[in-house]
Amino acid sequence: MHPSQLVRSGVAAARMMATGKATPVNAMVALTNACNSRCGYCDIYARGEEGEMSTDELRTLLSGLKARGTSRVGLWGGEPLMRPDIGEIVDHCHQLGMWTTIDTNGYLFPRLHERLSHVDHWMFSIDGRAPSHERNREAGSHPKVMRAIDHAADVGAHFWMLSVLSRHNLGDIDWMLDLAEARGARVIFQVLHHAEAHDGGKGAAILPVDEAYRDALRHLLRAREAGRAVGNSEVGLRYLL
Description:
The protein is an alpha/beta fold. The chain has helices spanning 3-19, 55-67, 86-96, 109-112, 130-136, 141-155, 173-183, 195-199, 210-225, 234-240, and strands at 26-30, 72-76, 99-104, 121-125, 159-165, 187-191.
């Protein structure tokens, strides 16, 4: 994040703590339920697109967030790059002066990134080596996200990676860190959360046992202490542990 935006975020957070008045300093906005992927632990796409906000409604929402103190907005879905108006939405965030990130599976990134020059930071979803990633997500998905990551590195886009830890990929943590370090990025690791809400309970089949999750989190804490490319905070990892 640009230093001036960090300062604005810090000032807003300090004001919130001093006054006790809640401020949406950081906001995540789900732009769509539509998705061009069928991940094993997610069925957001099945909710349908009925009721999604129009371009004008999103402009109003984003302007309202800015007026209430938001300095960073994360755009996600579904797959946000599937919205035909994604460029307009990103440009509006930029005009408002908000640091803008997009969470994406990467499938459309190589084709669309030039139209989205005002995205400040990208988050690509990758869950490990091809077999692990595709067991979590879908067949044929690994080359697509790797193409996006390599393209982002080649064009100098700012990006990190997002990895969901499941029964299938706990052994790929170091591979993920190696990949991030080779591409000048970091990795945020997530535990698989609210599976029943997002996939009708299918995700329970790929939840690791509790101790396996704890071992993975301990491994991440040691890796972070050693200076590796772990994007999670120590506080966050210890909370999960």
